[in-house]
Specification:
Layout (H helix, E strand, L loop, with lengths): L1 H15 L3 H20 L8 H16 L3 H13 L1 H7 L1 H6 L1 H6 L1 H25 L4 H7 L6 H11 L3 H25 L5 H23 L1 H28 L4
Length: 244
């Protein structure tokens, strides 16, 4: 027993001073979260991303570990986001015929989704008494975090707040999105995929792939195109409305 405790103590001392700490914590937390998710029968409220984030926050708080120290190792997982995004081209190619046939509805949905998704966040937060800075930080909430932070800096918002709101939006979209679409009796996976991709970016797209490859492919397409549209249109729209 003493030998086991010594080994564990030695392992913790090594990991706590090594970039491997963040990587280990991230992978172990996600494995635990995914096991809980499967054991629950894939309940959306136990989304692996949501649960693993909760576990990591608790571990960092309990151990007194700074986020910077944690991210020194977690950045290796962060790096894989690039290849993972590129890999979305594979299901897109598999669904190319359907995408080509539905290009007009997809284009219209993306345009309305980007414009009304951003402006609804701004005006609803205004009605609830949020400051102008918070309103602007909410505007790019439905695109991926790096792009949202770039947009936020461009429009005079807080990039860090936008990043937090992006992650929150993605988790909420992954947890509630598919159930909400089912509640409204929307059964077509391509339609659900576009809706999830426009509103919940990468985290929502990951959830879409858990439902079906078709839904994931359309979510990935919508995520990519809505990000580009938001980056180009949002500063111009906010300027035209005299919000910036």
């Amino acid at each position: 027993m003493r030998m086991t405790e010594n080994n564990l103590a030695t392992l913790w001392v090594y990991l706590s001073t090594s970039p491997l700490l963040g990587l280990t914590v991230t992978l172990v937390s996600y494995c635990i979260a995914h096991a809980v998710y499967l054991r629950s029968g894939s309940h959306p409220l136990l989304n692996p991303v949501l649960v693993s984030v909760f576990i990591i926050i608790c571990l960092l708080q309990i151990s007194g570990t700074e986020y910077r120290v944690y991210f020194d190792g977690a950045q290796f997982v962060h790096f894989l986001l690039g290849p993972a995004t590129v890999a979305l081209a594979i299901p897109l190619v598999q669904q190319f015929d359907r995408i080509k046939a539905l290009w007009m509805p997809i284009a219209v949905s993306l345009l309305f989704g980007v414009v009304f998704g951003s402006l609804s966040a701004v005006y609803i937060s205004r009605l609830l008494g949020a400051s102008l800075l918070t309103q602007l930080s909410l505007a790019p909430k439905s695109v991926t975090a790096p792009v949202a932070m770039g947009i936020a800096e461009e429009i005079g918002a807080l990039p860090t707040l936008s990043a937090v709101l992006v992650v929150t939006t993605g988790i909420l979209g992954a947890v509630l999105g598919t159930r909400l679409l089912t509640f409204f009796r929307i059964e077509n996976d391509s339609v659900k995929g576009v809706a999830i991709g426009v509103t919940a970016h990468g985290i929502g797209t990951a959830r879409a792939f858990q439902v079906s490859n078709e839904m994931g492919a359309f979510a990935g397409l919508a995520m990519a195109l809505s990000t580009v549209l938001t980056a180009f249109l949002l500063p111009w729209i906010l300027t035209a409305l005299a919000l910036i």
